[in-house]
From TrEMBL:
Gene3D superfamilies: BFD-like [2Fe-2S]-binding domain (1.10.10.1100). This is Bacterioferritin-associated ferredoxin. Residues 5-53 form the BFD-like [2Fe-2S]-binding domain. InterPro entries: BFD-associated_ferredoxin, BFD-like_2Fe2S-bd_dom, BFD-like_2Fe2S-bd_dom_sf.
Amino acid sequence: MNRVYVCSCFGITEQQVKQHADSGACSPRKLASACKAGTDCGSCVKRIQALLGRTATPVTQPAAAQLAATEEPMAEAA
């Protein structure tokens, strides 16, 4: 059996990510709650997002820029 690991820290495979997604863990946060994938070193988060179909920003963008792109802009003080 050929296993493709997504999260080396917790030994989570692509197949396990897909199984958790089919069971309702359809976001990186829900997946992390289900199996801890993405909660240690974080190097697998982009791959998890891709597997879940949630890559809204380019992979080459720094993490801070990705976070800023997903947050709603704050209203300016008058």
